[in-house]
Structure of Sodium:proton exchanger:
Amino acid sequence: MGEIPLLDEIAVIAALGVLVTVILSRLRLPTVAGLLFSGALVGPFGFELVHSIHSIEILAEVGVVLLLFTIGLEFSLARLKSIFRQVALGGLLQVGLTTAVVAGVATALGEPPGRSVFYGFVFALSSTAIVLRALAERRELDAPHGRFIVGTLIFQDLCVVPMVLIVPMLGTAAQGGDMAQSIGVALGKAAALVVATILVARLVVPRALRWVAAARSREVFLLAVLALCVGTAWLTAQAGLSLALGAFLGGMVVADTEYGHRAMGDMLPLRDAFVSVFFVSLGMLFDFRVVMQQPLLVLLLLVGFLGAKGFLATLAAFAMRFPARVAWLAGVGLAQFGEFGFVLARLGESAGVVDAAATKPLLAAGIASMFLTPVFVRVAPHLTAGQRLLLPLERLIGVRSIDEADGGDEHALAGHVVIVGYGVAGRLVARALTACGAKYVVLELNAETVRVARAAGEPVYYGDATSEEALGHAHLEKARALLLLMNDPQAAQRVVDTAKRVAPTVPILMRARYILEKEPLLAMGATDVVAEEVEGGVEILARLLRWLDVPRNVIEERIDEVRASTQTTERNVTIPRRALGDHGDLAELKIESALVTEASAAVGRSAAALGVRHETGALIVAMRRDGKLLEQTDPNEPFLAGDVVYLAGSVGSVKKAVDLLTRPLAGPAQAAGDELGLSA
């Protein structure tokens, strides 16, 4: 049998990729870094183990299409609208500022306008895969700097679509063409295509996927989704636009249907396999000789990514009124080359915007920045030098407002509670303190949250609780307690350390996400720490045992066992109540009500005289008389007209009891017989 070179080379790529990635994971470097490095090793500038470069690039192109398709799956039209409102300002500042500054520097160095804009685009994008993984590992996605970074990355992903449209047009500008006209034509085509996509998404795709899903075959459904992905990409290519744009729109089409989550689950393994090939192919572009031949240029570009780009991202965070620490961490998190920067570089080469000689140093510096990012993200929270350098700029921009409110009545009063964080938990605590008449002051880093709360008259101020200055303006030394409800565990530790210096006698109550964090925080000086995973585990345990019809006293014993081994609570044990029908053994019992009217034979007679329990089997559990609920009823007390009687029992028993209580009064003979006890 003949040899299949491409198959051999894919096997080499897969084996080496796994080996290098596993080794680098021991150094806590991301998977993407391992794939890039393995590509550099097997590529034409490394050990030359792969020769079918063109075939590998075709597979990589499929990976790009699948990557953008799954990104489109995450952005339905409705979600896109809500996300855009949340992240547009910060993302627009970062992308716009970086693009403008880089383009300006390139123009000053003599580059033509089209190429200058191209460089701006490439520098503006960051690595979504690397940064999100680093934030997730450090549990900082919900921290203030994490929210800013995630929002900016989302905006960058959305900007890829117009960038992919514009980059081919920049080539005509470099050759003296009309760039504005070319870009206008491309954007016009894209707008028409988006409108057509929305119409297809609303009218055709849901019916087609419903018809395919009726076949109950996972393979057929996956093939249909793949056809939509590749089909829309091919149609956009036929219209003179990019494959990437079509794949993104195809994903949005499916995301607006009820099958979006299923499509994402089915496509993820396929996407991950091809995207891995994509990153390996990008690593093949890394030329070690460029680093040796142009070390100064590569070093300057690397400083541009890590230093200049990070500083511009920091300025964008400052403009969103974040303090120095948050802006510093946001700048570090966004200071690297991005995956889609490689896509734009390849697109720029094919469109004639730049040549390989210009992109090789850029790619070398970009890959180096992606390697260094996980290390910098891990080290940055522990470095206060960068934060201190930014403090003058913070004061110049005026992001802090807790000092401005220092003269207010809230801060002049002693015996208050200082709350750090005004999320769901912070609002609940503030509401309870208000109801109890207790004074409090809140420090919050979300400027929009502060604005809304201040408009509602709440004593919420913008300030960074990790600084002694902010805690001093909050008069922590006069407070009764400090309550930490932060989503940033590193920042929470710094607040505890700072608070013990500012006011060592003030008790510190705080929450932590994991029980393992409790003892270190107590050792640092926290007075009491509540672990969220324990409270969530106790609550779900109580609900589960209740659904399993475990008796209440047994549930309380199990909860006490958990509490004894983890953390105690000051609250009484509460177990959610269940409806009668929720109990498996009592599912056949029903509760029904019956109104005793003036014409009813039950008027003037008691339950014992009627024989309600003996004759029907139903039990009278309560009765409402004159608007009052009587939980205990005397079986010998006569019924009155207007009484509402509540009965419990099986369906048949309850029906008999209702008939007995509501049957009309019979004639005189029947009534006389009833009085003598002759009726059944």
In short: DSSP finds 30 helices and ten strands in the chain. The CA atoms of residues 50 and 410 lie 69 Å apart. The chain has four domains: 31-380, 400-526, 534-578, 582-675. The longest helix spans residues 77-108.
